[in-house]
């Protein structure tokens, strides 16, 4: 069933004519097509509607800033929006665009073996679209029609109606976050930007069709489309690097952790995804809002003593203690050990504060202070008396750090709200039901009276579909990404610091390459080291340019 009216015409691709082609951004794509013998990356049959037309591009030249801020003249081939599934429930969102560098400052770029950066623009688990994109970095994150202000996990100060390429492109200049699509392109990488369904989408009957697991199904389908078009889409399909921020960071981490997992097959078949692998090579995740069924406890353990930004008052201490107790039990069950070189063994609720201080917070403060001039450092330390600066090293207590952060952004519970008001409640909506509880604790303490006091029977499966920790620790997925770049602002109270740290420990426990750091004094959706990320991509993929 289509949720957006589109024009239709026939188009000849390769050896066969398509039927019922939907026009997305001026490109004819099709939901049904005659199979003419094309093959996917597994050697199987590929539906003609999913064959990438390498000659259907517009050549563009733009001035794009590289990671150091230097403007470069970039000539690239832009392939406008086309569907990545044969049975899209929403053609405007289940489509992608491709950008391939041709020249940078007049130097010819040969991108046939370049890494492919899959830059998603997911935020707040809301829909994103490339249907109207006319160039790289113009993915539209749709924030309208959601009600209740900004969704959970989105930074404040966003322009009305969402983020587009001129402002942020979903991962753009919000709190300093750069546009990773443009940054990758100017580095000589192939860039694929997928649109995805999101939690606010409804059809004419009021059915929510973009809730979990739609976002991860769409990203997997996009990866399958890329892999199925090996040799047609420029770039190395064995070197796909996913990037995303906030809920997009969570989705990127989930994509990396769940490669080729069979539990998504029914959803991918229903959408008409290509018969190809959906595993990726490397994962970039900035401030991932993930591990949702345990996020409320983690948040209270981290920020429970702080007053909220909206009221200036502390939260219910009894609720906070109950959730903290849940986190302690969960953390003990994970049996995770501190990253190599940290000097820590098993990380529990009792020693997690010491681990965060030593592994992340004090090093990030040290790096920040060391980069200041002597006078700037003196001024900062005079205002931040909780920091002891000795031998060019910063030291402080957990209590001092919390006092420095001062306020928490979210009420309680932060993710599964008792009144079903959180964005994540909407993410687990179903049918005509906009929002549902996904934890037993919040269901038991529901204040809406709209349902029973238990989570619905399908919720446990939905949680497995949406949580990278399930795939890393319970399934030990052999087809996961083996390289992880994880970043978080040290003052990001959209989530708990433990969420990213647990993700890093889980990946490293399986032998994966993990590069994880926090940015001092930075909040949600920040990126302090984009140049290092670009170099990291080149290093882990082995790309020489």
Which SSEs are present, and which pair or pack?
Blueprint: E1 8-9, E2 12-13, E3 16-24, E4 27-33, E5 58-65, E6 71-83, E7 95-104, E8 107-108, E9 116-119, E10 128-129, E11 140-142, E12 162-163, H1 180-186, E13 190-194, H2 214-228, E14 240-245, H3 247-257, H4 265-271, E15 282-286, H5 295-303, H6 317-334, H7 352-370, H8 374-383, E16 388-390, E17 393-395, H9 398-405, H10 423-427, H11 440-444, H12 459-466, H13 468-474, E18 483-489, H14 497-509, E19 513-519, H15 530-541
Parallel strand pairs: 9-13, 9-14, 14-15, 15-18, 18-19
Antiparallel strand pairs: 1-3, 2-3, 3-4, 5-6, 6-7, 7-8, 7-13, 10-11, 11-12, 16-17
Helix pairs in contact: 3-13, 5-6, 13-14
Question: Could you say which structural class the secondary elements and strand pairing correspond to?
Answer: alpha/beta
CATH class category label of the largest domain: Alpha Beta
Secondary structure tally: strands: 19
Strand content: 15-25%
CATH topology of the largest domain: Rossmann fold
Radius of gyration: 23 Å
Average pLDDT number: 88
Largest sheet composition: 10 strands, mixed
Helix content: 25-40%
CATH superfamily of the largest domain: Alpha/Beta hydrolase fold, catalytic domain
- End-to-end distance, in Å? 44 Å
CATH architecture of the largest domain: 3-Layer(aba) Sandwich
How many domains is the backbone divided into?
4
The count of helical stretches stands at 15
Q: Assign an overall shape.
A: globular
Low-confidence regions: 1-37, 145-176
Please give the oligomerization state of what you see: single chain
């Amino acid at each position: 069933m289509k949720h957006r009216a589109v024009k239709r015409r026939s188009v000849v691709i390769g050896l066969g004519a398509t039927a019922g082609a939907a026009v997305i951004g001026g490109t004819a794509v099709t939901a049904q097509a005659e199979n003419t013998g094309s093959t996917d990356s597994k050697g199987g049959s590929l539906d003609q509607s999913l064959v990438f037309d390498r000659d259907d591009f517009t050549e563009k030249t733009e001035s794009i800033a590289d990671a150091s801020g230097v403007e470069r003249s970039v000539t690239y081939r832009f392939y406008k929006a086309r569907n990545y599934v044969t049975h899209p429930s929403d053609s405007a969102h289940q489509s992608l665009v491709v950008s391939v560098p041709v020249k940078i400052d007049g130097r010819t770029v040969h991108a046939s073996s370049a890494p492919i950066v899959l830059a998603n623009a997911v935020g707040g688990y809301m829909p994103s679209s490339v249907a109207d994109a006319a160039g790289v970095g113009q993915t539209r994150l749709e924030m309208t029609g959601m009600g209740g202000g900004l969704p959970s996990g989105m930074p404040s100060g966003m322009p009305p109606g969402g983020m587009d390429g001129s402002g942020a492109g979903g991962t753009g200049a919000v709190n300093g976050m750069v546009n990773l699509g443009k940054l990758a392109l100017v580095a000589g990488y192939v860039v694929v930007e997928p649109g995805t369904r999101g939690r606010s989408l409804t059809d004419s009957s009021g059915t929510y069709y973009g809730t979990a697991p739609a976002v991860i199904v769409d990203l997997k389908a996009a990866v399958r489309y890329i892999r199925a078009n090996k040799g047609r889409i420029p770039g190395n399909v064995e070197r796909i690097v996913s990037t995303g921020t906030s809920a997009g960071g969570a989705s990127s981490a989930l994509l990396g952790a769940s490669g080729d997992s069979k539990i998504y097959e029914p959803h991918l078949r229903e959408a008409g995804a290509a018969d190809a692998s959906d595993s990726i090579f490397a994962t970039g995740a900035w401030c991932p809002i993930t591990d949702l069924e345990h996020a409320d406890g983690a948040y209270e353990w981290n920020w429970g003593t702080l007053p909220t930004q909206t009221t200036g008052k502390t939260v219910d201490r009894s609720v906070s203690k109950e959730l903290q107790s849940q986190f302690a039990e969960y953390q003990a069950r994970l049996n995770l050990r501190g990253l190599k070189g940290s000097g820590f063994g098993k990380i529990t609720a009792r020693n997690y504060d010491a681990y965060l201080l030593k592994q992340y917070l004090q090093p990030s403060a040290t790096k920040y202070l060391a980069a200041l001039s002597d006078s700037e450092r003196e001024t900062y330390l005079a205002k931040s008396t909780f920091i002891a600066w000795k031998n060019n090293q910063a030291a402080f207590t957990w209590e001092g750090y919390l006092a420095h952060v001062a306020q928490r952004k979210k009420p309680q519970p932060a993710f599964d709200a008792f009144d079903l008001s959180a964005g994540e409640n909407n993410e687990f909506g179903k049918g005509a039901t906009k929002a549902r509880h996904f934890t037993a604790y919040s269901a038991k303490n529901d204040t809406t009276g709209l349902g029973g006091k238990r989570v619905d029977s399908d919720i446990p499966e939905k949680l497995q579909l949406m949580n990278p920790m399930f795939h890393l620790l319970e399934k030990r997925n052999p087809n996961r990404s083996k390289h992880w770049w994880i970043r978080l602002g040290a003052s990001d109270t959209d989530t708990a610091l433990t969420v990213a740290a647990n993700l890093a420990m889980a990946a490293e426990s399986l032998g994966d390459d993990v590069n994880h750091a926090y940015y001092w004094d930075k909040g949600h959706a920040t990126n302090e080291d984009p140049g290092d990320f670009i170099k990291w991509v080149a290093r882990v993929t082995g790309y020489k340019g």
